[in-house]
Amino acid sequence: EKAQIGVTGLAVMGRNLARNFARHGHTVALHNRTYRRTKELVEEFGSEGTFLPAETAEQFVASLERPRRVVIMVKAGKPTDDVIEEFAPLLDEGDMLIDAGNAHFADTRRREAALRERGLHFVGTGVSGGEEGALHGPSIMPGGSAESYVSLGPLLEDIAAKVDGVPCCTHVGPDGAGHFVKMVHNGIEYADMQLIAEAYDILRRAGGHEPAEIAQIFQGWNSGRLGSYLIEITAEVLRQNDAKTGHPFVDVVLDQAEQKGTGRWTVQAALDLGVPVSGIAEAVFARALSGDPDTRAAAAGLPGPAPQAGAGGTDLQADVEQALFASKIVAYAQGFQQIQAASTEYGWDIDPGAMATIWRDGCIIRAKFLDYIKQAYDKQPGLATLLVDDYFQEAVGGAQDAWRRVVALAAQQGIAAPGFASALAYYDGLRAQRLPAALIQGQRDFFGAHTYRRVDADGSFHTLWATDDRGEVSA
Ligand code: NDP
């Protein structure tokens, strides 16, 4: 008997993906650098399906049906290159190497091009949902050739999460498209988490609510339009009490957020593309600020107001819900714009509505809300920004008074709310009839003769700033 699919790299993610394939009736070949992990998987979970454990790469490759499908689930970076180099020489034309780790999309583009030369399909695949998702149904974002998806897609769709029978998996686009979209997914996740954290902070310090009460508030929101996995787990975390001290769990955790790097990658890529993903950037920077205790300690005595519990007034809860929803819409609009910009830049032809569809379950940002994004792109595939879609326009329009109150309150009370504030600034910047960018163009022309365009004539112009009459010339 031969295996339909093989997994190499059997740490938490690889092991659970392999079990998921097996539970769906596929015969799964197993391999790991250290054989012990392979043995353990079969000993513990062998009864869940049919596994073909292999001690060597050669045995592993020999146990796979053609075309071979080899899922690589190892540490991203050099280990992935090592594993590719180990397997590529053993494979035949038309076989597939599927990198399901968190690779940078530029690495995926490089690997795909190199392996294509060697007649192999390289499928960089985003997988979201952590270890639970890997086992019970992740959201899967495969890139690579359309041809590879014909043979690989059905297996991935089998193990993916489903919403009303629709799998949370689709062919994203060629080469690095899958890993790019996974990266932006993580960036949006950063923004979402930051906004939720700001909502909590304002409710606590300007609303005077205790964590357990805020847990109740979030639980209530979870049954409304904000309903999502992240809101749900926020309520769980806020409700938790520390066993050792009896204090709220959030009060005993060190307030320094860590990051593994995909948020930072998203912002770096956005800078290269020139797309303003301020919501994601603020979230990455807020984590960086929190994670710098030395500077925070040095600055701890700086003057500023101390928040007054109750300053938010009686409408605070409802206001914060509106601010959170509006800011979240901005963050998602920015993320989708980044995907569209990359799709144009790299010729990926990504369908943004399909991305919203496959994020509806399995992944960390799963939410009701994604249905509206899908509908927005179904209605208008060429939408310039989600903010101009009817549903979102109305939601943000309706939320904006409360949103402005919350941002003003945070500023007055001295509570840092970079996510809410910058989302609002983005919204106001985007809808402005005139921006002060005209002044910046003037400054640039003054010191660097960088030229400017006029509102009333074609072409580029330069003012002779150094001359007495400061006349204008055509550039
Ligand atoms: P790790 O990232 O901890 O990687 C451990 C695995 O990599 C082991 O199987 C290890 O083999 C193997 N490995 C490391 N270096 C090499 C090498 N040079 N050659 C061969 N094999 C090597 O495992 P995870 O399961 O946590 O994650 C796997 C991938 O999935 C990563 O890219 C991660 O970013 C991504 N991912 C993780 C998620 C998560 O929630 N953990 C979510 C989504 C994606 P050995 O046993 O011999 O040491």
Structural write-up:
With 475 residues, the chain is of the alpha/beta class. Helix content is 55%, strand content 9%. Helix 9 packs antiparallel against helix 10 (229-239) and helix 16 runs antiparallel to helix 17. The longest helix is centred in the C-terminal third of the chain and has 31 residues, at 316-346. It is globular. The protein starts with a strand and ends with a strand. Bound molecules: NADPH dihydro-nicotinamide-adenine-dinucleotide phosphate (NDP). NADPH dihydro-nicotinamide-adenine-dinucleotide phosphate (NDP) is lined by residues 9-14, 32-34, 37, 73-76, 79, 82-83, 101-102, 127, 130-131.
Summarize the structure in short.
Homodimer. This protein is an alpha/beta fold and 475 residues long. Helices cover 55% and strands 9% of the residues.
List the helices and strands and how they pair.
Blueprint: E1 5-8, H1 12-23, E2 28-31, H2 35-45, E3 51-53, H3 57-62, E4 69-72, H4 78-87, E5 96-99, H5 105-117, E6 121-128, H6 130-136, E7 139-142, H7 146-159, E8 162-163, E9 166-167, H8 177-205, H9 211-222, H10 229-239, H11 249-252, H12 262-273, H13 278-290, H14 293-299, H15 316-346, H16 352-358, H17 370-379, H18 390-413, H19 418-431, H20 437-448, E10 452-453, E11 460-463, E12 472-474
Parallel strand pairs: 1-2, 1-4, 2-3, 4-5, 5-6
Antiparallel strand pairs: 6-7, 8-9, 10-11, 11-12
Helix pairs in contact: 1-6, 8-12, 8-13, 8-15, 9-10, 12-13, 13-19, 15-18, 15-19, 16-17
The chain binds NADPH dihydro-nicotinamide-adenine-dinucleotide phosphate.
The site of NADPH dihydro-nicotinamide-adenine-dinucleotide phosphate has 22 residues, from helix 1, helix 4 and helix 6.
InterPro entries: 6-PGluconate_DH-like_C_sf, 6PGD_dom2, 6PGDH_C, 6PGDH_Gnd/GntZ, 6PGDH_NADP-bd, 6PGdom_BS, NAD(P)-bd_dom_sf, Pgluconate_DH
Binding site for NADP(+): 9-14, 32-34, 74-76, 102
EC number: 1.1.1.44
